[in-house]
Structure formats: C-alpha cells, structure tokens
C-alpha cells in the first residue's frame, strides 16, 4: 500500500472524527438550549401564575374604604381630623400588602382639586409589609384642613368635597420581588363638615331630621339635603 493511499485513509478518518465531534457538540448545544428554554418557560409560567393569584387577591379579595372621620379634640388649634382607612380581606387566606399610601384632595372648583396634607397616625407603626388575615384592618391617618382654603360646596351646602387616593401593593408572602407585585389603587369620595362651621349654621340650610349633624358622609349615602 502506497504512502499516499495511507495518507488519504488517515485524512478521511480524521475528517469523519471531526464531523462526529462536531455533531456531538451540536447535539449537546441543542440539549442545553432545550433545557434552558424549558427552564425559562417554566419560570415565566410560574411568575404568570403568581401574578394572576396576586391580581385576584388585589381586586377581588381586598376592599378599601374610609371607615370613619372624627374631629380631633383640639381641632380649632391644629385643624386636624382623625381618619380611619379600612382595608378588608374577604379571603380565607392572608393577604400581604405594602404600607398604604394615602393622598387627599379638596374640590376647589367645578372640576379642579387641590391636594391637602395627610399623614400617618402618630401611634401607627409604619411597616414595609403587612400580613392581613381574613377580616377588617384599620389604618389611621391625620388630615389637616386650612380653614382659609376656598372650596367648592359641590352638592351639599357647607360641606367640603374630599377625595382620598389610596395606593398599596399586594405582595407574595416572600415579600417584594421584581415582577411579582400588583398595585391596588382606590379612590374614595366623601363630604366633610368644616370644623369652623357650627352645627346650628348647617342645620339652618340642611334638614337632617333627628339625625345628628355628621362630621362626614360617604358620597354613596348622598340624598338631597337642601331645605
């Protein structure tokens, strides 16, 4: 057998070996790509399932409202009302939320609003995350109204028209995690009695019957109070 023939055989074997190695590498790459793709798809589906569950909690299992508003004892000096924000969890399992951020606005024109100061209650501990078992959970806020602020009386004489914007995030039990947070935003409208106007002045233009002049009224409870 001539040396040239032997060389051709060796060259052919080397090329086949190289081809085999290349095929193996391609198969390994394809397998890795499949595993990585399957893993990424599983992560995406798991995240989508978590978000869907959080959305259900945020918009179906949690309700938000203004529970009560009272004049503070020294309101004529500090101009402050004590506001109770109520968050209800109607689900059997607990819901985890971030600290509720609350903003307040007074209607000062036909369609214009002015933001008024509101702060968290002095005795309320501000946490990054709250675990809300099934039931009602109150959060305290302090609303400050400057009596010199001109306001639109809207529908009820003497009363101020106030809007509360309440925002918080619904979280997984593990806490904040990018891509796994759902924001809940609620707007609540109420009528608020100006503390510098007496009950006698209000009773002169509004017929509450035997009912005591209320500090506040939810907008859903409105009727024609004009005399």
Name of the CATH architecture: Sandwich
Please work out how many helical segments DSSP would assign.
3
Number of strands: 11
Structural class: alpha+beta
Distance between the termini: 123 Å
Strand content: 25-35%
Counted up, domains total 1
Principal-axes geometry comes out as: elongated
Let me know the largest β-sheet: 7 strands, antiparallel
CATH topology name? Immunoglobulin-like
The CATH top-level class label:
Mainly Beta
* Unreliable residue runs: 222-227
pLDDT averaged over residues:
82
Provide the succession of SSEs: HEHEEEEEEEEEHE
Question: Any overview of this molecule?
Answer:
- The structure is a single chain.
- Strand 4 and strand 5 form a beta hairpin.
- This protein has a single domain, classed as Immunoglobulin-like, CATH 2.60.40.
- It has 3 helices and 11 strands, in the order αβαβββββββββαβ.
- With 227 residues, the chain is α+β, with helices and mostly antiparallel strands.
- The chain starts with a helix and ends in a 9-residue tail after the last strand.
- It is elongated and about 110 Å long.
- The protein has helices spanning 3-61, 75-78, 199-203; strands spanning 62-71, 80-89, 95-98, 101-107, 113-116, 118-120, 129-132, 135-144, 160-171, 182-192, 216-218.
- The strands form 2 sheets. Strands 3, 4, 5, 7, 9, 10 and 11 form a 7-stranded antiparallel beta sheet that branches.
Question: How would the blueprint of this fold be written?
Answer:
Elements: H1 3-61, E1 62-71, H2 75-78, E2 80-89, E3 95-98, E4 101-107, E5 113-116, E6 118-120, E7 129-132, E8 135-144, E9 160-171, E10 182-192, H3 199-203, E11 216-218
Antiparallel strand pairs: 1-2, 2-8, 3-7, 3-9, 4-5, 4-9, 6-8, 9-10, 10-11
């Amino acid at each position: 057998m001539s040396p040239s023939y032997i060389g051709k055989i060796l060259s052919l074997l080397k090329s086949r070996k190289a081809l085999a190695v290349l095929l193996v590498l391609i198969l390994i790459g394809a397998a890795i790509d499949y595993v990585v793709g399957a893993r990424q798809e599983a992560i995406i589906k798991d995240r989508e399932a978590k978000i869907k569950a959080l959305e259900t909690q945020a918009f179906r299992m949690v309700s938000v409202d203004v529970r009560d508003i009272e004049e503070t004892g020294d309101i004529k000096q500090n101009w402050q009302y004590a506001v109770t924000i109520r968050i209800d969890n109607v689900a059997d399992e607990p819901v985890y939320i971030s600290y509720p951020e609350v903003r307040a606005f007074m209607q000062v024109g036909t369609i214009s609003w002015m933001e008024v100061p509101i702060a968290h209650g002095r005795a309320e501990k501000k946490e990054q995350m709250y675990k809300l078992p099934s039931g009602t959970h109150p959060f305290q806020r302090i609303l400050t109204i400057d009596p010199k602020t001109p306001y639109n009386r809207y529908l009820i004489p003497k009363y101020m028209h106030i809007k509360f914007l309440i925002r918080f995030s619904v979280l997984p039990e593990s806490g904040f995690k990018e891509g796994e947070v759902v924001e809940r935003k609620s707007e609540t409208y109420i009528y608020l009695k100006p503390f510098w106007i007496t009950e006698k002045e209000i009773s002169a233009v509004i017929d509450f019957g035997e009912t005591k002049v209320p500090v506040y009224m939810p907008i859903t409870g409105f009727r024609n109070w004009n005399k």
